[in-house]
Design brief:
Blueprint (H helix, E strand, L loop, with lengths): L2 H13 L2 H8 L3 H15 L4 E4 L2 E4 L1 H28 L4 E8 L9 H9 L3 E8 L1 H9 L5 E5 L7 E14 L3 H4 L3 E2 L1 H4 L3 E5 L3 H10 L5 E6 L2 H9 L4 E5 H7 L4 E4 L5 E9 L5 H9 L1
Parallel strand pairs: 3-4, 3-5, 7-11, 8-9, 8-10
Antiparallel strand pairs: 1-2, 5-12, 6-10, 6-11, 6-12
Length: about 280
Amino acid sequence: MNLKQLEYFMTVAREKQITRAAQKLHVAQPPMSYQLKQLEEELQAKLFIRNAHGIELTDAGRELASYAERILTLADTAQSQVSKTAKGELGTIRIGTASSSGACLPTPALREFVNFYPDINFDIFESNTFGIIEKLNDQTLDLGLVRTPFDHTGFESKTLTTEPMVAVTTNQQLLRNKSLRLKTIAKENLIIYRRFENIFESSFAHAGLKVFYAVKCDDSRTAIQWAKMGMGTALVPQTIAELYAPNYWVKINHQSWETHLELIWLKHKAKPLIQRLIKLM
């Protein structure tokens, strides 16, 4: 039993005449009749009876029809879905997002992508940059939204944003400033995202400043929470401060303290669906 035989069978069942069914499918009648006979022999059942009104299904034929319709529908669906997947129009996109990516997803480009390809869905994993990189290397994620600095070895990337670090504090005297100098920052009990420690330390050392790190953590949201509780001044990316501490941050007058939000993926591993999204973003 094959799909062609089931298609012939269902067409004859609907048309109630082999000649008309053959015309509808644009095939010759003898090959269709042969295929139907082969189907009956394989199933060891008579599927049709002839009467004054044409061809009618037997009880066995009606039983087969209930399955054949579902089989043909499933086959059509499978063909369509496989084709869409191969073309990058269907599937699941697994994205890892760093906590410091803030409100960068979903983007307008992502909404446009979903409107154009409504059959896709997303599986979001949230972690820090190193956790996301580990899952990308394990190939349990397709894309990662992470912050610099990190080791780019083995990855391709696109820079989505470039932004400065800012100071989050409850110190009203500091908040009244338009921007803060390193000399002023150095006097505060600092709360830092551990990954940026080398960058901060290098800048302070170059300026001949000694600082006290009151808290080191692995999530910028944690740094902000401690700062809002008056435990010190947190140094975090500006978009995160805007999102989680909109009234408690001030710019820092030091241009080298910049961080980039990057979209990354394993080299030579992006399937068609992922390639489409990368191109759009």
